[in-house]
Amino acid sequence: MKAAVNQKLTEMGERDRLKELLRAKLTECGWKDQMKAHCKEVIKQKGLEHVTVEDLVVEITPKGRALVPDSVKKELLHRIRAFLAQHTK
């Protein structure tokens, strides 16, 4: 089911539109700046020479997900549901 929804979103170009909306909303609410600051803090704590990109991703992902405002999640979910209602019958 998830694969079918993803395929439909991709085929119709809606996936890219949703990604752009998400980027804009996250920048607008300050999420991007918060994550940038968190990355700098992690690098500062561990030392630049001791952090790989993979380590950084593992370290910041939980906080990144937690910091996404509920309003942004709800808006994306609403748009996905509306898209599916309109394009699947």
From TrEMBL:
Its main location: nucleus. The keyword Transcription regulation applies. Pfam families: EnY2. The keyword Protein transport applies. One of its GO terms (cellular component) is transcription export complex 2. GO terms for biological process: chromatin organization; mRNA export from nucleus; protein transport; transcription elongation by RNA polymerase II. Keywords: Activator, Chromatin regulator, mRNA transport, Nucleus, Protein transport, Transcription, Transcription regulation, Translocation, Transport. It is found in: Nucleus, Nucleoplasm. GO terms for molecular function: transcription coactivator activity. InterPro entries: TF_ENY2 (IPR018783), TF_EnY2_sf (IPR038212). Component of the nuclear pore complex (NPC)-associated TREX-2 complex (transcription and export complex 2). Component of the SAGA transcription coactivator-HAT complex. Within the SAGA complex, participates to a subcomplex of SAGA called the DUB module (deubiquitination module). Involved in mRNA export coupled transcription activation by association with both the TREX-2 and the SAGA complexes. The transcription regulatory histone acetylation (HAT) complex SAGA is a multiprotein complex that activates transcription by remodeling chromatin and mediating histone acetylation and deubiquitination. Within the SAGA complex, participates to a subcomplex that specifically deubiquitinates histones. The SAGA complex is recruited to specific gene promoters by activators, where it is required for transcription. Involved in mRNA export coupled transcription activation by association with both the TREX-2 and the SAGA complexes. The transcription regulatory histone acetylation (HAT) complex SAGA is a multiprotein complex that activates transcription by remodeling chromatin and mediating histone acetylation and deubiquitination. Within the SAGA complex, participates in a subcomplex that specifically deubiquitinates histones. The SAGA complex is recruited to specific gene promoters by activators, where it is required for transcription. Belongs to the ENY2 family. This is Transcription and mRNA export factor ENY2. It comes from Amphiprion percula. The gene is ENY2.
